[in-house]
Write a structure and sequence with these properties.
heterodimer; A: about 80 residues; mainly alpha; 3 helices; elongated; B: about 200 residues; alpha+beta; PH-domain like; 2 domains; five-stranded antiparallel β-sheet; three-stranded antiparallel β-sheet; about 30% helix
Chain lengths: ~80, ~200
């Protein structure tokens, strides 16, 4: 019964809605990756401190914020 | 007239190379006494004499690929591969492509920048990051170095003067390897002088 409802729900979706789900899923994975990247940069700069530390941390944080912003934009405007 | 007797000099041979000029380039692959560089577990009186990264030639592959991938969407615009997509999806595809490209370039740069070999006044340290999730740090006291071998195979390595340095130690980890480092002979000479 429930399975039929689930199947009906998916069949009622337009192809673009399915595409949106996949796009959001991909962007969510990217946000997770960007978060791991930030953690990794912080860990790397702890192991080896250099003049570029602030620059690299800033880039990684910018990438994370950009990924979140694009995820939200895709959620509301796609 | 030749000297009949020459007294032994009491001068102590300097342990460190005297002509080490301090490197200020933060992205140098061969940095002598790099300024403002420290590593985890560095002792108080320990000074970094040489910081080594892979030669810049080893980065040419991903740099070239990165540049080509920047222009790939422009190339694809001439072919109706994604022409059927609505404008919003075309835009998100383009953004997604450049996000992946940024991640690729940044990850490769980090991988190059933080994979270093360090020679200090006390020891040699090898810091390796494989991908984003695996870290390996090994070190050996200078006294425990038994043998140093240089490997420079191939035309590219000979032309650009870079190669591998294998440091055999008496420590727990038998071998420390600095891969694709510039001027391997200079590195070996420095190691010989400070050992």
């Amino acid at each position: 019964m429930n399975l039929t409802k689930v199947i009906d729900f998916f069949l009622s979706l337009s192809p673009w809605s399915v595409a949106k789900i996949f796009v959001l899923l991909a962007l969510f994975i990217y946000v997770c990756f960007a978060f791991i990247l930030v953690k990794q940069v912080y860990l790397m700069t702890k192991v080896l401190y250099s003049q570029l530390d602030v620059f690299l941390k800033t880039i990684s944080l910018l990438l994370l914020f950009l990924a979140i912003a694009i995820f939200l934009a895709a959620l509301f405007f796609l | 007239m030749p000297d009949l007797y020459v007294a032994k000099s009491n001068k102590v041979k300097p342990k460190l190379t005297p002509k080490l000029l301090r490197s200020n380039n933060p992205v140098a692959a061969f940095a002598l006494k790099p300024s403002n560089v420290f590593f985890e577990n560095q002792k108080e009186q320990e000074e970094i004499l040489l910081l080594l990264r892979s030669h810049w030639v080893t980065n040419l592959g991903w740099i070239t690929l990165g540049i080509l991938f920047i222009f790939l969407p422009l190339f694809l615009l001439n072919f109706p591969v994604i022409a059927f997509l609505p404008l919003r999806y075309k835009l998100i595809s383009l953004i997604g492509w450049y996000l992946l490209l940024i991640a690729f370039i940044f990850e490769r740069f980090l991988s190059w920048f933080f994979n270093v070999g360090i020679i200090t006044t006390h020891r040699v340290v090898d810091i390796d990051f494989y991908g984003l999730l695996y870290k390996e740090i090994s070190d050996a006291e200078l006294e425990k170095i038994q043998d140093v071998t240089e490997e420079q195979v191939g035309a590219i390595r000979t032309i650009f003067d870079f190669g591998d340095i294998l440091i055999q130690t008496a420590g727990e980890r038998k071998m420390i390897e600095f891969s694709d480092v510039p001027h391997p002979r200079k590195v070996i000479k420095l190691l010989q002088e400070i050992r």
